[in-house]
Amino acid sequence: MSNSSERILLSSEREGRISHFRFWVMVGVPLAAILFQVYVPLFFQFLGFLELPLLVVVYFALMRRNQVSGLLIGAVVGLAQDSLSKNPLGMFGIVNTLVGYFASSIGVRLDVDNTAMRLVLIFFFFVFHQFFYWVLARALLAQQLAFEPQKTLLLGVLNALVGVSLFYFLDKLREKA
Amino acid sequence: MESFLNRYRSITILLLVVFAQLVLLAVQVKNDQDVRMIRVWTVTAVTPAARLIEGFRGGGAGFLRRYVLLHDADAENRRLQAELDRIKVENIFLKNELSTADRAQALQVLQAHIPSKTLAATMFMAGAGSNSKVVFVDQGSLRGVERGMAVVTADGIVGKVMAAYPMASEVVLVTDPDFAAGVISQKNQARGTLKGQGTPLCKVDYVPADEKVELGEWFYTSGDDRIFPRGFPAGVVKSVRNGQPYKEIYLEPSGLQRGLEDVLILVEGVHMEIPSAPPTGQPVYIGPPAPPAAGAGGVAGVVQPPPATGAGTAADSLKSQYKAIGDAQNHTFGVGEPGSKPPDFTRLGQPPAPAKPGPAAKPPATGPQAPTGPKPVEEPDR
């Protein structure tokens, strides 16, 4: 097995250990992310591209490495987003549930402390989130939303860059073993 | 069976959660009803935090301006630099304040002049999602806001209340694809339906191809939708194309042009007339009243106020008339002893009396009257 693959796959018990967070972190961080999304773009419109709730779901799902808690975090954050949007409840909920489940599934198998890996994963989940939301909106609500691949990919890169920094900050909030 | 469930526990829970949300979606779409409870919980949880942040932002900006920027006031050079920075920041702040004051004043004027019963509200957060076209305002059902109420600014329509929560309301903006309102063009009276497109421009649909609509023409609410009362500006035409069977008209909504910080919710809408002139965002200059025509007051020798020089008030005008009375009767104001004879103010608006009236000046009781001068005319109403 090559050195690079050792970085990607789990190579030690330390990397596979589940991260634990305090209760206030589990509640406060998603709430802050949702508040950021609904409040900050009022003053800085250029920050409207940031999907902080999604990034937070991906982070907790990856680091908790537990599929059930990952999907539940995704469902709660998604429903909260739905509640603050004009869409029927469940649109963001379903998408974020799936993101939480898949992210935690990947977190079990890969070294998610690796920065490059995080960059790729955030990019992937952002594009998945946007695409799957578009599919749901068309299929379930018959909404004719536009899906712009180039724009989505660009926003994916930007969110990935911000997400890596955010993850670094959130790592500081992990409970020490 | 138990081992099977344990083995597929995660995927089972995933399917259950997704299925539950699909059912939730289906119920809402089929019944066209919202699951209000969850939204109320979320909005009620988020609103106090958002308001708190807004309070901190306002207070923090003030603190930063008053203290932090003056922190290094010891060194002269730095102090001057900081002072310059502070003045620049203050300049931006004052511009914003001025803009806010303009908007607030415009709203007050609108509130006083439209017959509809309104409720002033402030936007404090936007809807979730990067393409969101909804906002939240700080007035809710506790203040009488209900779903479907129209939201306007002095510049035009903004949107309508989509959901009213106890302390806040969700407003869908005029640019949202789900927004629609009945409109009518000002000049050619073409009726149509204003629809949001998710872009800065809105579309006016269902205007027959044979109707005439011009570029730059204004559209107003028609009142047909029973939400927006007739007569509110909707926007100005930016593009018109002929199509079949309807024209393709794109409109720039006027209500969103100067920001959405302060809005009015129409609690009880009253229809108005469509104005004959397009609205303008600029303050209107109202000049002084025109001087009387030469054949009216000018020949009558009436004590007239001096011509207005600049911005004279009604008090200035009255003062001038009193001064003219005093001059005509050789009276200087402020020099007479207490108890001395005051000027005859009953002559205000009368022809000036002779300086030294003698007994012969009494008018004859009978006989033809000699022309004694121009007849007094009444002071025109002011």
Folded structure, characterized:
The complex is a heterodimer of chains A (177) and B (382). Chain A is mainly α. Chain A has one domain. Chain A has eight helices and no strands. Chain A has helices spanning 3-8, 13-16, 23-39, 52-64, 67-83, 91-109, 115-141, 149-171. In chain A, helix 3 runs antiparallel to helix 4. By secondary structure, chain B is an alpha+beta fold. Chain B has a domain at 143-268: Thrombin, subunit H, CATH 2.40.10. Chain B has helices at residues 2-7, 9-31, 36-66, 76-113, 294-298, 314-328, and strands at residues 117-126, 134-137, 150-153, 156-164, 169-173, 180-185, 191-195, 202-205, 218-221, 233-241, 248-253, 262-268. In chain B, strands 1-2-5-4-3-12 form a six-stranded antiparallel barrel. Chain B has a six-stranded antiparallel β-barrel with strand order 6-7-8-11-10-9. In chain B, a hairpin with a 4-residue loop joins strand 4 and strand 5 (169-173). The model of chain B is unreliable at 281-286, 294-311 and 353-382 (pLDDT under 50).
Short recap of the structure:
The complex is a heterodimer of chains A (177) and B (382). By secondary structure, chain A is mainly α. Chain A has eight helices and no strands.
What attributes does this structure have?
heterodimer; A: 177 residues; mainly alpha; 8 helices; globular; B: 382 residues; 6-stranded antiparallel beta barrel; 6 helices; 19% strand
Total number of helices of chain B: 6
How much helix, percentage-wise, in residues of chain A? over 70%
The structural domain count of chain A equals 1
- Identify low-pLDDT runs of chain A: 1-6
- Sheet with most strands of chain A: none
The first-to-last residue Cα distance of chain B is 96 Å
CATH homology superfamily of one domain in chain B = Rod shape-determining protein MreC, domain 2
What is the CATH topology descriptor of one domain in chain B? Thrombin, subunit H
Q: How many strand elements of chain A?
A: 0
**Which regions of chain B are unreliable across 5 or more consecutive residues at pLDDT < 50?**
281-286, 294-311, 353-382
N-to-C SSE series of chain B? HHHHEEEEEEEEEEEEHH
Query: What is the helix fraction of residues of chain B, given as a range?
Result: 25-40%
Oligomer: heterodimer
The assigned CATH architecture of one domain in chain B is Beta Barrel
Largest sheet data of chain B: 6 strands, antiparallel, barrel
H/E topology pattern of chain A: HHHHHHHH
| Total count of strands of chain B | 12
